[in-house]
## 1
Amino acid sequence: MRLEKCWFCSSTVYPGHGIQFVRNDAKIFRFCRSKCHKNFKMKRNPRKVKWTKAYRRVHGKDMTQDSTFEFERKRNRPERYDRNLAVDVLKAIPKIDKIRVSREERHHKNRMKGNKAKVQKEAEKEYEQSIHMVKAPSSLQQEKIKVKVSQQQSEENPLMEE
Amino acid sequence: MAASFASRCSRAGRSLFGGLSNSSPGLFTTTHEMTCSNYLFQVTQQRNFIQMRTVLKVVDNSGAKKVMCIHALKGKKGARLGDMIKASVKEAHPNGKVKKGSTVFAVVVRAAMPKGRCDGSEVKFDDNAVVLVDKQGQPIGTRVFGPVPHELRQKKHVKILTLAGHIA
């Protein structure tokens, strides 16, 4: 059993899920759900659609090069079954997962490093530029709001009546 | 005189209003339909069964180029991927095994309509294509072009699978 990747969003396609489209040159496009299939039919480029893995990779949002990805590589040679090896693999899976998550967190932290100072700077600038729009509540109370009430005359069309 | 004038005016007014009330929803519906049809055309194209008068491409070297389905041998609504059909040859190469106008049996090896797989996922192809066979299910040609689905093995068309280059 092989868990394939979705052509559009690069998520895992589990058995029994999604649809696959076979082009006439025998290229297979697998889709995890109808959302991805529809986007493919609309001829959208996954590198330009923000929620896909491809976009995040291209724009440096996600970690791209890491040794933990090596475990999930596609291998075309089947492994001979060995019980001890299988046990080891099952033990290693949560460990590797933990390492990967921590590395991703670090990557995210690195990426967001200069963000706080930038937000602060922008806020200060906005404060300086638009302080005149804010008024003290005491000054608002002094102003009295006057509303002019006018009577509306209903228009009558004598021609409409029989 | 005055009464007649008033009545005429009222009629005119009514007709004017009537025209307005008729036209405005009409306009709305037309635009709505147009957008709907555009949307459907872009996103979902209706794919149907292979039924009588469906024209299919022949993807072997039997000599026929295009056949028209005249009967689906199985299924109430029509044939799907892997089913056998009876077809009439509409276009053929001048010196092939199959002549134009002859009636042949064929197996649908590619269908644009999605077909459920044994695990619950679906598969669909670019076009509708067949391979010509005799009544026993043996292929007439000696080559098969393009991808074919592995479901043909369940349908006992192993010969077509061995001839095919790509199995999807």
## 2
Amino acid sequence: MENVIECINLTHYYGKKLIYKDLNFTVEKGKIFGILGKNGTGKTTTINILMGFLRPTGGKCYVLGEESHNLNPQTRVKIGLLHEGHVCYEFMTVAQIEKFYSRFFPNWRKDLYFGLIDLLGVTYDHKISNMSCGQRSQVALGLIMAQDPELMILDDYSMGLDAGYRMLFIDYLIDYVRENNKTVFMTSHIIQDLEQIIDDTIIMGRQKILLQMPIKEFLGSFHQYHFNVNGRLPDLDYDDTVANWESLKNHYTVYSFKAEGDVKTYLENKGVSIKDFHETSMNLEHAFIGLTGKY
Amino acid sequence: MYKAILYKEWLKIRWAVLGYIIVLLGFLTYIGLEVRYWFGMNDPISIWLMVIQKKILYYSAIKFLPVFAGIVLAVVQFVPEVVKKRYRLTFHLPISETRSLLFMTGICTGILLLFSVIYILGLTIIGGSFFPREITSSSLLTVAPWLLAGLVGYLGTAAIVIESSWIYRLAYALMFTPFIMKLFAESGYNEFQFSFGSYLLVSLFYTIIVLFPGYRLRKGSK
């Protein structure tokens, strides 16, 4: 399978502060790839490196076969960027911005852009600065779709959008990406939305990647077990069995990639007397918090 | 592609351009009326004394207009680019950042030249209507540094606006301001007659400086 993005031993510091070290990941062609992580784990740094606006301190990051911070202008034609906050030239009108961008991209698809704009019910001479955040997001998405890029990098597309516009954005994005076999690399703070979009994910922890796998595999193999104990359980170690754990009084929750029987045996071997041991299902947001912790 | 960039820049600067042309024409009209008033109220010898002996420049009202135009143009052109980091949109276009930045500054340089043509034409018409040819041609040499200050003021303001670090901004301000002040340092007419060429050469150096903050932005200084 062809890799559209390939990052090798990616390392970045801001001054002396290490953001992450030796990050390795790839994004296959035709996949929707989500990067998840709490604030400060380096999502935006990674996006900035991929967008070519930040030169990594160490390692290499290849986008469509070229180093991301040194992209050939012609390669940029194949990459559509959605900037955080749906940044666009707000001093232009709906028609002016289309006229401007259409000159740069040989496969420009005017119909896709105006198709999306028509849904908003705004006139073509409507100035973008006078639009709501939701309307602006549709303009930004319409422009990227019209560009017809091979790769779309979407930085927190959900920022400032209400539920309706988020759904509209996702619906159009999924339809477009699946129909045209595009590759997408995206982040969002609304993790529950990503569950229905992304194929693969990396979850970033402090200074490292916690996991990289297809989203279905993650949700299928990551478990949440609840149980009660008499007295207080000694602190658990993070190891192959316990990915994370939390407690409230005598109620415990353990997150693990191991099956129920294995976890139960593991706890019993620790000499813990457990009651009411059971598993509950998780959506992506729960699984993400389960893996990374609430704090 | 260049046509599209020209289109974008025009959308940003058009009101400033039109506004400046109106202001400039207004000032030129004022100077023309003022000189006519001089000739109406004074005898030619008094005017000769004022212009030649006392070195009163009848066009000093428009001394700072070019630098004002340069600063305003840089602000209206580049502030929209740096607000919300919109320069990222420009730098992702399929054109090299150096070329796009040079083209963008080239557009406003061209507009400043157009302003200069109007400025010079206005002074030539006014001077030619009231004074001997020598005085008119000396007025053109006298205003040349002021016009150059407009261009340098534009480049300096552009560099300061594009730059993301306050320390670098201060450095640019220190680099550009004394030079601009020097261009206004005359106390009569024709004072830059023999040195203007050198000032022009130094200005070319300032043209390149504006690329530096752009490069820093592109490679991730912010």
## 3
Amino acid sequence: MNIILCVKQVPDVTEADIRIKKDGKDIEKEDLEMVINEWDNYAVEEAVRIKEKYGGKITVITLGDEESEDVLRRALAMGADEAIRIDEEGFEGSDPRGIALGLYHVIKDLPFDLILTGAQSADMGWAQVGVLLAGMLNIPYATLAVQIEIKDKKVIVKRELESNTFENVELPIPSLITIQSGINEPRYVSVLGIRRVRKLKIEEKFLDDLEIPPDKVGEKGSIIESMKLMPPPEGKGAEIIEGSIEEVCERLAQIIKEKGGL
Amino acid sequence: MILVLAEHRRGELRDVTFEMLSLAERISKESPMEIASLLLGGERGFIDKLKDFCDRIIFVDSPELKNYSPEPYLEAIKKAIDATSPKLIMISHSSFGMDLAPFLSEKLSLPLITDCVDVSLKEGRLATLRQIYGGKIFSEIRLKPYERYLVTVRPGTFEPEIREKRSASVMEIPFQAGTYKRRFLEYIEEKIEDIDISSADIIVSIGRGIGKPENIPIVQEFADEIGAVLACSRPVADKGWLPKSRQVGISGKTVKPKIYLALGISGSFQHQVGMKNSKTIIAVNKDPKAPIFNIAHYGVVADMFQVIPVLKEKLKK
């Protein structure tokens, strides 16, 4: 079972105070730690588990700057075999289709049985690239997988729907699956583990090598004319209870007793 | 024309259909145009439910369309687009629309913006509002000019109500099913492994802020003390620290307790959908910008582990 794995590096904003750049087009990323996109981390683990069970080779691909090699090394440390980085130069300002095109032009020449991607990313959250890529490659797909079973050249994918409901769908091989968080428990990656794969070569691809018309990617190829970032509008919002922990808890206890009928 | 793709599953039209039709009404106020519902498969009874909400209903019926699958849906939607030539197509940003919309975008060359919390059309140009970085930032997007646009709309964002009653005419389009590579097999409903959190009066709910599984007994003890049940947001269930049946949110449970005490929960929209109708929402979070504070009634900016022991004492009295 040869697997191609698409991953992405994102800034970790779970506890960060995000500031918007003056031009309103992006956030200030200098002080933010760059990490593997959470959904992609589950996808890496799932790929490694499939390989451990059925054998084969995992090729991990990212589209990003040099720093994004970190997520490739991390995937190699978890069990991927080969890594490709598509340099982001020329892709800046791409919409999801521009990114999918970059991946497509590398993947179309590679042999594979399955492609795994995260269902969405923690930064822009488009949830598009995986399915666009499947469409370009003309292969069947399923999104939001929380379980994957391989049986007689068929893949049974359990998709997460709403309200505690799921569905099973069947895909032939080759196909593409996007991974929902919680599908597995990703293994721990130690510093030593990453050091061990430090010398593995990462193949690099550049826009010029890919035969993509340059006006199909970047801002030129994007459907978006302008994007302006802003802080969330101030809603009614919560009444913020201030004071010492003692005072705050006194008030909270009052509210809970009164509203909860304790 | 604005074409709204009705969403249904297991014999029920989903609320988000009416939410999108209400948004379509608002857009048509600014840019006058017809509103149509596209019903693929489903039951004929759905037509009556949709009639007041739109000017036209396009119905494509086939056993292949009863349960969603992308390939027959693509073929049916292509027929509907050819027949009606809509300016804007709306699909829900649900497990259904997330699966379908990018496929349509690629195969029918439709410019797509996903997960919109607002949509407008001015002089034929689409503008949308999205949330990025887990809801911490909003992004206002203007698109280049195109003949036709496709959007997915975030469920739970618009009220499923309209101002002016309409009366739709019905148009049926015949459908000949082909052969498809992906096959729907079955629906599965997860059994509730332990308690049913949706019937609790007081819920103490934990999120990413719990930090590690070793901390859960601290909160469990607190919940037991005040007669509350313990629930969680997605990251806690994803890590397997609490069973999936304790997860509040769009893919888990919807709850409406008297008190919802959110501890260390940032409050993604997926979580909010599951708890925003709680009578009193109290949020404790270290991050003053956590989106949970936008929908909570009371907020405390603090470390949950400093609050829990003191609050427990106060409630004992």
## 4
Amino acid sequence: MHVLNTLFLPLLAGAVLIPVIIHLIWRNKALRVDFPAMRFLLQSQKPISRWLRWKQLLLLLLRMLIFALLALLFARPFIADNKSFGVWEKHARHVILLLDVSASMSSEASQRKARSEIEQILSNLNEESTVTFVRVGNGSRIIVDELPFTNGIERIIRETMQPGYGVADLHDALRQADNKLSSGDEKRGEIYVVSDFQSSNWPDYVKDIRLQSKAKIVLVPVAEDELENAAVEEVSLPQQPGDKLKTRLTLTGHADFKKLTVDVTLMNRKAASESVANPLPNENTFVTFENINVPLNSQLAGAVNLDLHDDFTFDNHQYFVLNQNRRIRILAVNGEQMRGTGDELFYLKSALNVKSSSFEIVETNPMQLGSKGIEGFDIILLANVRGIDQQSIAQIHKLVEQGGSVVFLLGDKIDATLFNKFFQELAGCKINKTTFPTLDNSNGLHLLAATREHFLVEKATAGENISARIFQSWQLQPEAGANTIFSFDNGKPAIQELRVGKGKSLVLSFPLDAEWSDFPVNQVFLPLVHSIMHYCTPQKSSTSYYLTDDVIPIDKGFDVNANIEIAYPNGRTEDTLLKGGIFDKTQEPGIYTFSQSGKKMYVAVNVDRRESDSHFETTENFQSRLSTDGEITNNSQILRAGNFSLLEIEQQQKLWRILLILLIMFILVETIFANRVPR
Amino acid sequence: MSNVLRFIDPKILASISGMELRAKTVVEGFLSGLHKSPYKGFSVEFAEYRQYTPGDDPRHIDWKVFGRFDRYYVKEFEEETNLNCHIVLDLSNSMNFASNGMTKLEYASYLAASLAYLISRQRDGIGLVTFGDKIVHHIPAQVRSGHLQTILLELSNLKTVPRTDIGLPLHQVADAVNKKGMIVLISDLLDDPEKIIHAIQHFRFRGHEVIVFNIFDAAEITFPYHNTIKFVGLEGEGEYTAIPHSVRDEYLARLKNHIAFLEKGCGSNRTSFSLLDTSKPLDFALQAYLAARAGKM
């Protein structure tokens, strides 16, 4: 039996309880009378008490039944049974089953419920039905495409229900299913959406999904109500020597763990472990690993692991590849090569060649730049360079476009006309003349941060003013798009940047030697120079992982025309040719290892953290986003009733009349029975 | 004394303070309504002269006074008696029941006080025995002045006892009172009726005249309850939850049988049996006493 007004079902339960509550409230309120002539009452106690007990019990049952019938009456019940309503069986139906196989569906409860619901749906299909079964992950994968329903089809569906590690795009799957049904199929269409309706999959912008077909949409929610989950939400990898590995954990849902143990593995070996006692639910928990030693110039694959068993196990690991410690290659073009402190790069090289430095600086001069080439360098430093050949300018431009950087240090060798001719576009500014503030003011000019939120300002100066004095500098005229990072205390720009393609172009209006300033002997010199180089380092090195189902480009160092050995996270290995230099079999999270001729590349693949979301859309909310001419319900049981309107079925059966008669009968019986006393 | 007070409501009586005043109010009111002088007996101790009124016995006319004053005077005498009357009062907890404000025990104590006052005024010896499952207090019968106050004081300070066993204490009283006299039993008699009748037989065997006042509350007789009620026994009989209308008939039938058995038992032992409920004026009880007293004379 099913009901039209499901709202009355909880009311039904409540209604049945009403007589019980009344009974319990009034049960102990019998008036107490101290009575002397008890001997005459007690002589007939037993039979009367037994009668009373039975009477009260029967009355209670009768009243519960009356209330239940009343609530059921309002719920408007009907029977959807193949035998009783065989007429609907004759209608051929096309059932499209969209099963959410995202990672969040992997919780035991969701799996159990999803299996049970699908079993129920399949059990109601007959051979007249046509079935399409779609696994909905990052993309829709049709497993069964418009085939008549048979035992074999049923077995295929049952065997391909296990969830993956992706994010479900139900929105797209629903559109495709709708298109399929609206393409002139004469059969009655039904679309079943079996999902946890995770909120993160349904951003607010997915507001109105307009469906063309008149298919019946049945929403089958299978989300677990009381989720208990802890996730490794984010991993912050060390950027340079001395940095620490940090991780952010989140506890969601009803998670209440007494202790969390987090460990870091590097190349499958445990490198560090930390414990967090009584982490707060629904809060971030930060864990810092102090002693992670990573050798320089190495590429390490690793993971942060949470050692516990919760509802979502896929987010207990965050895989990463640590290659930030590779050396940053800088090509320094020296425009004024001299001996000792007079050399344009004397102080700069001293600053970059400190112990444990990750910088590799290669020096050249403008004349040799063309023959040396800039291949393999991350940053091109033009220190007091008057001019370079056109080919080198084009190469630098290309490097910057692709993510590299160029840094201009403007000194006494610079000619404004030549600079504006060759470098204006790349530098993002024009220069016209040098200023000599020292003629009037021996204290020089100071640098002030133009913005407090810039990486250089935060890292190099920590927001403090710089006490260095600049005695002479070039006057910059920034062009549109250029951004002033530091200015002088007279308001003129001192250091500016321009974003070019994926890279950056930085202009310092003064050289980094002691000729025009006392900057090299100032305490901020070293951190500023290091920060500039880190800031200018191509960002690709910070990409530590991909998501499941992402396409991975293979490094240029590999020969894509030869076989590459691939080791999968589950231990399986494969020796194959990667056409186009891309790899797309990233369905599982973990570390993928690519090897060829002694060269190795590690790639970390993680599950999208949106899958850890513990908020689920209600079917009512979801329903409100759909607009269709067909019927939408969240009750999978109505499948048996075919495509007929439930209202029509209810009106045809008129079960309410039987219920009403029963109700009146019960009320009569109750009235008679309540007034009956034993004689 | 006005006739109005003759049938005085027991509730009003309860509002009068002092047991003696209550007793006096009842008895005087009662006596003033009698048409016939109650002062019968063979006492010859002169009391006073009174003018003859129609109805007086002509034998009592003092002819010497007639000779001297030419008027008819009758001689009045103080009555002398050798009758000892014991009021035997039940203090069981079942007497502590009231549906209309006055407990059976209060009613019984007023009745006992009124009887004591009346008996004392008649110059009979008066005694008091209170009992529960045994004798609680025994004041032997005496005629001396001031004895009435002792009894009234005792009646003013009655307290119930948890249990009752009417048979045993009555046998003890029967054994204790040697001189033949009158026994006035005031009780609700809620006990085994056979034991009660057996005790009465004991009194009769010892030559006592017995008057039984069976006191009930109106609620016990009419059982006027509705809705579901938890009845709790006053003497530890336990509790019983019942719908009154379903048990009323059976209850009343058992009560009626009980009373009928007692009445029949008393009748066969030539014992006066009066059924009283606490809403009835005490005059009925006094009348019953006087009737029994007259029989004794």
